[in-house]
Amino acid sequence: MTHFLDLHSLADIYGAIEPLAGVGVCNYSFKTRRLVWSPGFYAILGIDSASNPASFELLTSMIHPDDRLPADDVDSYLREVRHLDRRLRLLSADGGVRWVAHRIDVFFDARQEPAFAAGILTDITSCVEAEEARDRAEARLRTFTRASHCFTWVVNPDGFKPPSQGWTNLTGQTAEQSSGEGWLDCVHPADRERVRQAFREAWSASTPYAAKYRLICGDGITRCFLARSAPVFDESGVIREWFGVGMDISDVNTANDSFHPVLDSDDPAGPLVKAARALLDWSIEDLASHGCVSISSIRRIESDHKVVVRNSTAERLLSALKEAGIEFFQTDDLGTFVRLRQK
Prior knowledge:
Number of domains: 3
Strand order of the largest sheet: 2-1-5-4-3
Largest sheet: 5 strands, antiparallel
Number of strands: 13
Low-confidence stretches: 1-8, 253-267, 331-335
Mean pLDDT: 80
CATH architecture of the largest domain: 2-Layer Sandwich
CATH superfamily of the largest domain: PAS domain
Strand content: 25-35%
Radius of gyration: 35 Å
Number of helices: 14
């Protein structure tokens, strides 16, 4: 069988590969001081070979001024440095800019004298643009977290990674202290187990996680945060990591929600009791059993919101509902309402 190289010269092979790979090669002889560029090299430069003989002067003229070599005599410079590996910007005639990676290696003869230099030019514009887009996104995220008093974190399948600098600034915890479940030490003791359980359930079910809890910050002040996270999947659908963000909502609660718990109410209105039962999916019989109150009393309370309820009966009902997770809240403009405590 005729060998492939017998039918196709190396020049033909490189000529076919270069456009696909977005590369070009060059060769420089120290003896003859002759520089040769391949078709791919010319293609990256965006010029034709017929009217543009290869030269260091021509290449330098196309390089952004800030990226040019600090030498006028490239021959002497290559003899001294013997190796170049750099990124630079090429300027096109229409004012466009392309990024390239330029690598040159010097090869020596038997007497250890520089014989020739071989180089490769690679168009990396798309890679640099992707890196710049990533850097912009990261800068925006950092700006957002600073402006909104947020903190972020990442959890990988192997465990908890150290959170952002925002967490350290907020809580005073070091990366080691916050690793694993150490971050829970900064959660208010009354909220800690609920938060721990909510995160573990989300982790096990591979579902988004959300929780509202209080943090004991490094300055000793307790602030309210809303935390959310979601799994990040790879191409095969496997969770690569979890990304989360926590936002300080202390001011929001104070200025906008403006509600506070009704801790001692001895006159639960009928609609509130009925609403609480609905949230718990309890029947009248269920509430009567949990609150040690007669079924007829509950029916009477729910049928008429103006009914007068004995303190002992109201206390038992409120106690049963609160133990089941019901919270009663009151605002200045909306009256009293109920909700099921977040788990």
